[in-house]
Amino acid sequence: MEQSNTLQRLRRRLESNTGKAIADYRMIDDGDTVLVCISGGKDSYTLLSVLMALRERAPVDFRLIAMNLDQKQPGFPAEVLPGYLAKLGVDYRIVDQDTYSIVRSKIPEGKTTCSLCSRLRRGVIYRTAKEVGANKIALGHHRDDIVHTLFLNLLFAARLKAMPPKLLTDDGAHVVIRPLAYCSEKDIARFARGMAYPIIPCNLCGSQDNLQRQKIRAMMADWDHRYPGRTEAVFSALQKVVPSHLADQTLFDFQGLRPGGDPATMDGGDLVFDPAPLGEILPSLQGVPLAVRA
Q1: Is residue 209 very low, low, confident or very high in pLDDT (cuts 50, 70, 90)?
Q2: Confidence category of residue 140, pLDDT binned at 50, 70, 90
Q3: For the motif PP-loop motif, what are the positions (predicted)?
Q4: Is the dihedral of CA 243, 227, 21, 165 positive or negative?
Q5: CA–CA distance from 212 to each of 41, 149, 161, 189, 284 (Å)?
Q6: 183 is in an annotated binding site
Q7: What is the mean pLDDT of residues 123-140?
Q8: d(CA 41, CA 27)
Q9: In the β-sheet with 92-96, what is the strand arrangement from edge to edge?
Q10: Does 114 count as an annotated binding residue?
């Protein structure tokens, strides 16, 4: 299929951003087997497409196995993904596990299902990774997902925590990677439309109006509309953490700070918000009287 110039530019940008994230966090090594989780949504389709393209020219050799969990949701088009993946020519596994019934039986009507559903899916994914010999698990979360998760934890769980681009599973058996960490949702959505992926909606949780994540999404959309670049700025901040200017005593020795100590231990001292280096400011203050109130 011939692709438009716009679609080709989008592909190059997505591949470039993904390749940079993989390199920055050393997500994939030579000889890795990567289980790519495919939900049928725009993000996971894009993830698989980009990883397949990068594999062709990567300096390391790695194997991709696509995996979809059929959760037995009513009306789920079970034939779509096997047909698509077979046509693509990628190794894949379709895992049948009726997590839908479990979630519906455990969660009261009207309550959000994401937490339990996510835990059940995670267990099946980890088990499948072990069965196929995968040491890496690739998820389709992008930059916007990571920023939204930061605010979810900040505002609703009182934690300064987001989705890391790379993490070790609780049992230490696998490494979870998010190769789309540098990619924007807007680019992914445009690319998915151009590629005409056979999108499968999530009727179990995606349509719930009371999800806190939907509220955060709306908040960030408003911020980005009024102040373009807010999402990018917040994500950049996640890569420039200054422990001495937060309040976590396990990350910085606040009790050990004493007059006469080394200001370098303060990650910028008290000048972190100053617009210019102190050396440029002090000469302009020479001879300026100070107003002191008792």
Answers
A1: very low
A2: very high
A3: 39-44
A4: positive
A5: 20, 10, 16, 22, 50
A6: no
A7: 95
A8: 22
A9: 92-96, 63-70, 33-37, 136-138, 175-177, 166-168
A10: yes
Residue 22 burial (CB < 10 Å; 0-12/13-18/19+)? buried
Distance CA 65, CA 56 (A): 15
Extents of the domains making up the chain: 5-238
Contacts of residue 266, Cβ cutoff 8 Å, sequence gap at least 6: 244, 245, 257
Residue 114 token pair: 């994401």
Query: Of 8, 31, 42, whose CA–CA distance to 180 is shortest?
Result: 42
Q: What is the CATH number of domain 5-238?
A: 3.40.50.620
Copy the structure tokens of residue 258.
Answer: 């004493």
Q: Quote the longest CA-to-CA distance of the chain.
A: 80
pLDDT tens-digit map of 222-275: 999 999 999 999 999 999 999 999 999 999 999 988 887 777 666 655 555 555
Question: What pLDDT band is residue 34 in, cutting at 50, 70 and 90?
Answer: very high
Q: Are 15 and 54 in contact (CB under 8 A)?
A: yes
The single-letter DSSP state of residue 283 is G
Q: Is 117 annotated as a binding residue?
A: yes
Query: Among 192, 167, 148, which Cα is nearest to 50's?
Result: 192
- Using CA atoms, how far apart are residues 171 and 175, in angstroms rounded to an integer? 10
- Contact yes or no for 146/238 (Cβ under 8 A): yes
Runs of H (alpha helix) within 157-240: 185-195, 212-226, 230-238
